[in-house]
């Protein structure tokens, strides 16, 4: 397994944000985690990245994990190239050329300040920064947030291509269920810190409760 989370409990003081969450992502698998605002999705991302300590339960990661955090979290005054370099810092990777091969637009933007880029370009920088560490598994917290549908679709294509060609495992944390079901064969649904349902995307998309809540009734 690339990600194995068992009975995970994470609390902020007295408030329980994740309540006995169990989920997994296998090697080379793309899995979605859906849920409304405040469900605990970013808390799970933080626990996976080792930024939050569990109150109980276990988090096991079977390879190098990289996170594309919610809201990108770039250094706006640094260039694109410098933002990328920071992504490779821990793993000692300095040369961004492999990332430019995957995301050629970043080579064109290399000298621009990250803060002046469009939302989609910034998300691409966050994507490239995560790839700098040559991850085996990528946790993507809200790929589509604030982006136009065609921009999201472009980034999603890159993600699917990396999964297909290199076996990159992905946990796609999304509010956009349509996108999540399209990209991922399997999904979990988190509400108020608890997993309420899980299964194959096709089955979930056909479940009236899930469709009603997450697909706008479509
Ligand atoms: P969103 O999609 O709005 O980002 P989310 O599903 O990612 O939501 P989290 O950000 O994980 O949800 O939040 C889960 C719960 O934990 C919420 O009730 C939130 O208010 C609370 N919470 C998150 N971060 C903190 C914090 N640092 N201190 C206290 N409570 C927090």
Automatic annotation (TrEMBL):
Pfam families listed in its UniProt record: ABC_tran
Gene Ontology molecular function terms on file: ATP binding
Protein's UniProt keywords contain Transport: yes
InterPro entries: AAA+_ATPase (IPR003593), ABC_transporter-like_ATP-bd (IPR003439), ABC_transporter-like_CS (IPR017871), BCAA_Transport_ATP-bd_LivF (IPR052156), P-loop_NTPase (IPR027417)
Keywords: Amino-acid transport, ATP-binding, Nucleotide-binding, Transport
Matching SMART domains: AAA
SUPFAM superfamilies named among the record's database cross-references: P-loop containing nucleoside triphosphate hydrolases
Domain ABC transporter: start-end pairs: 3-217
Family label: Belongs to the ABC transporter superfamily.
Protein's recorded name: ABC transporter ATP-binding protein
Organism of origin: Nonomuraea bangladeshensis
């Amino acid at each position: 397994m690339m990600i194995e989370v068992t009975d995970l409990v994470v609390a902020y003081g007295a408030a329980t944000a994740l309540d006995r969450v169990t989920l997994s992502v296998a090697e080379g698998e793309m899995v979605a985690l859906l849920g409304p605002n405040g469900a605990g999705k970013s808390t799970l991302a933080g626990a996976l990245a080792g930024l939050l300590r569990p109150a109980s339960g276990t988090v096991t990661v079977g390879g190098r994990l990289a996170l594309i955090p919610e809201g990108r979290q770039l250094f706006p005054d640094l260039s694109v190239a410098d933002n990328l370099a920071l992504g490779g810092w821990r793993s000692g990777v300095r040369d961004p050329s492999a990332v430019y091969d995957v995301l050629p637009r970043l080579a064109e933007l290399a000298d621009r300040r990250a803060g002046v880029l469009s939302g989609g370009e910034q998300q691409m920088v966050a994507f490239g920064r995560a790839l700098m560490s040559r991850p085996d598994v990528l946790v993507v917290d809200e790929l589509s947030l604030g982006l136009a549908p065609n921009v999201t679709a472009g980034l999603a294509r890159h993600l699917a291509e990396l999964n297909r060609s290199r076996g990159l495992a992905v946990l796609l944390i999304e509010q956009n269920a349509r996108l999540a079901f399209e990209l991922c064969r399997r999904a979990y649904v988190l509400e108020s810190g608890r997993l309420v349902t899980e299964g194959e995307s096709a089955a979930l998309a056909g479940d009236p409760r899930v469709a009603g809540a997450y697909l706008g009734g479509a």
